[in-house]
Amino acid sequence: MRMNVPTFIQLCHILREDGYITECSCDKVTLEERVAIALYGVSHNLTHRVLGERFQHSIEIIHQHMCRLCQSLVQLASIAFRHRNTGATYPRIRNSRRFYPWFKDCIGTIDGTHVLASVPREKHDVFRNRKGTVSQNVLVACDHDMRFVYVRTGWEGSAHDSRVLLDAISNPDVIFLIPPVEKYHAVDAVYRHMSGFMTPFKSGPGGRLHKKDYLIAAILRFGI
């Protein structure tokens, strides 16, 4: 389930004591088993049929508890995702001769990734990405410790990465971490260079990157 036993017990305790999920005496499935079903299915990308065989429940019961648990886990985002003090330089940068002072104002990186999606057949064309697979475009922000600090899901696979980012910034219903003044996220060349978001420097003909610029881009994106 991608976590050790103490963490699993603590997660169940939080869900129960803080009211993220309610229990009923008529329920035949304990909260611990519901959490196990959801985590096991999500972490291994298993179908409801496989989960039903593993936990000896009907597909309907598996579907019901998967939906309820996933909704409860999403509500934990406010306590699970915690940002560092973005006003200070990250210790990993401050203590590195390779990165300091060049990246002292960088608070993290942003990139997009594609996750396979299951949508109605009439929506396949909208969700089909440039590689021909049906997916959703997911925007992810990480800090310098490789921890997720923001995840934006739901966009069609055909949507451009920069469009997803601009929506996250401008949409009042989306809680997005805007970098403080003079701080920035490192982003790759598909995004637009603007305040708070730094793209790799392009100096070659037609805006192409030289070899040294690819090295800078790699440092910005992967921290190598």
Task: Compile the SSE list and pairings.
Elements: H1 5-17, H2 31-44, H3 48-55, H4 59-74, H5 77-80, H6 91-94, E1 106-116, H7 124-127, E2 135-142, E3 148-156, H8 161-170, E4 184-187, E5 197-198, H9 211-222
Helix pairs in contact: 2-4, 3-4
Question: Which structural traits does this protein have?
Answer:
five-stranded mixed beta sheet; alpha/beta; 224 residues; single chain; 5 strands
Short description:
By secondary structure, this protein is an alpha/beta fold. It has helices at about 5-15, 30-45, 50-55, 60-75, 75-80, 90-95, 125, 160-170, 210-220, and strands at about 105-115, 135-140, 150-155, 185, 195-200.
Structure description:
Belongs to the HARBI1 family. GO terms for molecular function: hydrolase activity; metal ion binding; nuclease activity. One of its GO terms (cellular component) is nucleus. This protein has 224 residues and is an alpha/beta fold. It has two domains: 5-77, no CATH class; 91-222, no CATH class. It contains nine helices and five strands. The protein has helices at residues 5-17, 31-44, 48-55, 59-74, 77-80, 91-94, 124-127, 161-170, 211-222; strands spanning 106-116, 135-142, 148-156, 184-187, 197-198. α2 crosses α4 and α3 (48-55) packs across α4 (59-74). The protein is globular. The mean pLDDT is 80.
